[in-house]
């Protein structure tokens, strides 16, 4: 039976004590109802109640339709609500799944063994890391297997309410193989993260839902009035790498002077003002810091560092950019979203199909911020490529002319390297070196 999920919009279908029907419940419990044989049957109406906030996913595995009742914390009444249009996947349709959770795991090695046992016989590729601080997962597979893992994981109370993000895999697996193991750091920083108080929510930034983030963003950038001025008491901080910003970012965010997250040092500079550090010389008690990254985990990690540095007003985008694009579309966002898998770059329409392909295509060719690494001209495709020189392998943006002139390399020096790979057309990714070495030997 195909699994499905919906985004709960919390739009009451009936009035709340005669109040306006457009009023949204901010916190609620759900009862699941399924229509069977022309009658309504309540499933675990007393036991099955799940408390979460507006915008979170609610999963089910029923072939029939169902209604939802939301318990309004404002007046104590159950009201009928409608769910957003469900996204359904065929069992053999490949998807990419992302989630993380900071939670204490007493025996992570045993936890890894349990997960590996569940994976037996299932077609899942990706990176799933576990340690004493929790889990971080990005993987692909046919929806039958990919979602079965999520459902199995949620049976554990420690992970019952994780925010799971799902997107189409486009063409088969987005990862070459499965890496499921213990890892000392769920994300990489030069000093490690095991010493950080990640299990204490008060030490992390305050999470904002996509709608709350949009409101903050519009207040800061005056998007509705097309004004590009940023208030001095608010900093929009992109906690990603510079090359990720190059294909897409929130309007008003400064390009991070960072090539690898492990070397991020925002807010850690001395008293002198450093141009590359947007947090240098700001008021740490009064300045709002709005942090965002792809899926949220890097912000959660880095916000604990900033909290220890005395920054008081820290906010992060819950679920990251991918969750925002799925809920709010591309409002305030320019370009594509860089992802760390075979797809590399995803237009906003990937997450919110209502954004037409035509509009997305126009967006790709109109953003002047995306420049060719070699000649500096505007690129027509918001998608990186790896240098054809295997021993360089630099990830860079390139215009079509320079791709031809430099044979897929990032510079003239690389064009004469001993281990050159062919220029890849379209959105293809390089395979292992032996593939090209063997082809060259066969051609001799």
UniProtKB/TrEMBL annotation:
It comes from the Eukaryota. SMART domains: RHOD. Signal peptide: none annotated. SUPFAM superfamilies: Rhodanese/Cell cycle control phosphatase. CDD domains: RHOD_YceA (cd01518). Residues 233-333 form the Rhodanese domain. PANTHER family: RHODANESE-LIKE DOMAIN-CONTAINING PROTEIN 7-RELATED, THIOSULFATE SULFURTRANSFERASE/RHODANESE-LIKE DOMAIN-CONTAINING PROTEIN 2. This is Rhodanese-like domain-containing protein 8, chloroplastic.
């Amino acid at each position: 039976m195909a699994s499905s999920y919906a985004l709960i919009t919390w739009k009451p279908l009936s009035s709340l004590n005669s109040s306006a029907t457009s009023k949204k419940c901010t916190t609620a419990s759900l009862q699941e109802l399924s229509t069977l044989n022309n009658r309504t049957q309540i499933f675990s109406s007393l036991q099955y109640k799940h408390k979460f906030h507006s915008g979170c996913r609610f999963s089910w595995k029923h072939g029939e339709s169902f209604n939802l009742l939301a318990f309004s914390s404002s007046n104590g009444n159950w009201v009928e609500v409608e769910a957003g249009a469900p996204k359904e996947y065929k069992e053999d349709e490949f998807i990419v799944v992302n989630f993380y959770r900071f939670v204490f795991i007493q025996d992570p090695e045993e936890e890894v063994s349990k997960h590996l046992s569940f994976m037996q016989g299932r077609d899942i590729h990706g990176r799933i890391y576990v340690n004493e601080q929790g889990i971080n997962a990005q993987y692909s597979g046919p929806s039958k297997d990919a979602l079965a893992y999520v459902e199995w994981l949620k049976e554990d109370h420690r992970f019952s309410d994780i925010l799971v993000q799902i997107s189409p895999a486009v063409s088969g697996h987005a990862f070459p193989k499965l890496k499921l193991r213990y890892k000392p750091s769920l994300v990489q920083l030069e000093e490690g993260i095991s010493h950080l108080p990640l299990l204490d929510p008060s030490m992390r930034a305050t999470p904002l839902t996509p709608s709350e983030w949009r409101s903050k963003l519009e207040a800061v950038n005056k998007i509705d009035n097309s004004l590009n001025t940023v208030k001095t008491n608010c900093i929009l901080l992109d906690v990603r790498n510079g090359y990720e910003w190059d294909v897409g970012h929130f309007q008003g965010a400064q390009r991070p002077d960072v090539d690898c997250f492990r070397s991020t040092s925002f807010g850690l500079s001395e008293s002198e003002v450093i141009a590359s550090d947007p947090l240098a010389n700001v008021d740490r008690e009064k300045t709002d810091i709005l942090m965002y990254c792809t899926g949220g985990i890097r912000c959660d990690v880095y916000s604990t560092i900033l909290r220890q540095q005395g920054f008081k007003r820290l906010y992060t985008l819950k679920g990251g950019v991918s969750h925002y694009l799925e809920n709010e579309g591309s409002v305030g966002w320019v370009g594509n979203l860089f992802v760390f898998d075979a797809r590399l770059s995803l237009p906003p329409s990937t997450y919110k199909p209502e954004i037409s392909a035509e509009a997305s295509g126009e967006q790709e060719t109109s953003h002047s911020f995306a420049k060719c690494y070699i000649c500096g001209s505007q690129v027509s495709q918001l998608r990186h490529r790896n240098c054809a020189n295997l021993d360089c392998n630099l990830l860079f943006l390139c215009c079509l002319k320079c791709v031809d002139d430099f044979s897929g390399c990032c510079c003239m020096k690389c064009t004469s390297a001993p281990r050159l790979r062919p220029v890849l057309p379209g959105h293809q990714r390089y395979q292992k070196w032996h593939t090209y070495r063997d082809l060259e030997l066969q051609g001799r």
